[in-house]
Specification:
By secondary structure, the chain is mostly helical. Helix content is 57%, strand content 3%.
């Protein structure tokens, strides 16, 4: 096939846009196609020969996509069951909220309000400085 033909440019050229893994090679359309073929249980080494027989290719690709979709839905259901089972086994009455020790709290010197983080105290102190300066 000539190098200037569209199918060859499409399969062997680099994508103009798209993402690649950090430090990795730029993804080509062919790389994405190979990954999709593997997901659909089609041998990427021999897909071009299979595609020459259009009726066989349609049947193979349709069966592969149907199987991929069924596997994807099954995996989603399994993950959902695992997630739901883990939340169902967690008894909310047995959960204990850890009490904060008094030494980890910061208090406002003006109003004695307690804060968990120093940034909260700093932000709160601004309200006191603006209210005292406006008085």
């Amino acid at each position: 096939m000539d190098d200037d033909r569209i199918p060859k440019k499409l399969l062997y050229g680099e994508l103009a846009e798209g993402k690649r893994s950090h430090g990795g090679q730029k993804k080509r359309y062919k790389d994405t196609l190979k990954a999709t073929l593997k997901d659909c249980k089609i041998d990427p080494a021999h897909w071009e020969e299979k595609a020459l027989d259009r009726s066989a290719w349609r049947q193979t690709s349709k069966a592969g996509v149907t199987q991929y979709e069924a596997d994807r839905i099954t995996e989603q259901k399994r993950k959902r069951e695992v997630r739901k089972a883990s939340t169902a086994t967690t008894d909310t009455s047995s959960l204990t909220i850890p009490s904060l020790s008094s030494h980890s709290l910061l208090s406002c010197p003006h109003c004695s309000r307690l804060f968990k983080a120093q940034i909260g105290l700093i932000s709160h102190l601004r309200t006191h400085s603006s209210s005292t300066s406006s008085s």
